[in-house]
């Protein structure tokens, strides 16, 4: 069975690292690679890049990680979106592996 996944989009890479650290300390989770997005309205945002953090583990641990990570990110540059999936389908798993950080 696929592990639960928690996704948190935040403003900026420094915020992502701090939020990921807080999340990993709050729940027994693992991190997947960060992903990034530079939206078309980047000049209007607090930080011009959005970073997605993905936590994996049991749903209870993912929820704990998301709660702590969200609190930390909100105290820094801010949160764009948060979502969790208790049991991702195989198709969703394939999409979760997409990553924009390794593209130029």
> Based on helices, strands and strand pairing, what is the structural class?
alpha+beta
- CATH class descriptor: Alpha Beta
CATH superfamily: BMC (bacterial microcompartment) domain
Could you give the distance between the termini?
Answer: 34 Å
Strand content: 25-35%
Shape: globular
- Count the DSSP helices: 3
The H-and-E topology, N to C, reads as EHEEEHEH
CATH topology: Alpha-Beta Plaits
Mean pLDDT: 90
Low-confidence stretches: none
Q: How would you characterize this protein structure?
A:
This protein is of the alpha+beta class and 104 residues long. The protein has a single domain (4-96), classed as BMC (bacterial microcompartment) domain (Alpha-Beta Plaits, 2-Layer Sandwich), CATH 3.30.70. 37% of the residues lie in helices and 27% in strands. It is built from three helices and five strands; from the N terminus they run βαβββαβα. It has helices at residues 13-26, 59-75, 90-96; strands spanning 4-11, 30-31, 35-37, 50-57, 79-85. Strands 1, 2, 3, 4 and 5 form a five-stranded antiparallel β-sheet that branches. The longest helix is centred in the middle third of the chain and has 17 residues, at 59-75. The radius of gyration is 13 Å and the shape is globular. The model has no long low-confidence stretch (mean pLDDT 90).
